[in-house]
Specification:
By secondary structure, the protein is of the alpha+beta class. The chain contains 2 helices and 12 strands; from the N terminus they run H-H-E-E-E-E-E-E-E-E-E-E-E-E.
Length: 277
Amino acid sequence: MKKRGKRSRQVRIVLLSGFVLILVFFFIVSALGRGEFSLFHKVGLEVMGAAQSVSTAFTGYFGGVWGNYRELINVREENRRLREELRQYEAATSRYREAVATNVRLEKMLGLKENLPDPTITARVVGRDPSLWFKTLIIDRGSSDGVERGMPAVTVEGIVGQVINTSPNYAKVLLANDPNSAVDVIVQKNRVQGIIKGDGNDFVLHYVLRNSDVEKGDHIITSGLGGVFPKGLPVGQVDEVVRSQRGMFQSIRVEPAADFSQLEHLVIIMKKTSLAE
């Protein structure tokens, strides 16, 4: 232990002596200015030059590392700012597209109202019946707006259904594709009459005689009978016709003109019908 401590002191003395010598060389070189160097001075200059070169390189290296680090921090901050701006622009673009789409729908609804018997009122769909047994939806117009049970509901594409219940601010509409719904219709091309009933998804056209001329692609419109829907409103398009050898009537499936899964706004025709009695 004593030998190890003695050797450590010797190392410290040597390092201190070397440091002192370097300082002396630096002082001598600085004091000489432009004077002629002796060999001793030249050796001192070499030592000092090498030491300063190492110091300069060391300082330059770590200075570059620090500069790159600061630049990286700045780049990250700039990327974060740009991402936030992009998110705001995308949100604004989405709101603009939605506003344009809503404006187009409302303009079409306005055009529809002009072709319907007065009075009418526009309603927004706010809910749907979660039950699997009934196809109904809730609108934001009720008895305080003059909406009554039995009034028909339509959209730009075609018929939607009929009001079956009201509260002061809301009303429930039974969709035309509900099995409990029935609408008097005609085939547009030849005025063949029938009754449309829902099957939960599409329509089924009933009571069309087997020898009647009905083909796939024919358009079905309201007949105006029954006192519910005005005459001539789109109902759907024939999707399938089956003529069996037995029975008096054809089996006809009709694809609805309105997409019941994407209803947002409706027009209520404010006329009294049999349901209102």
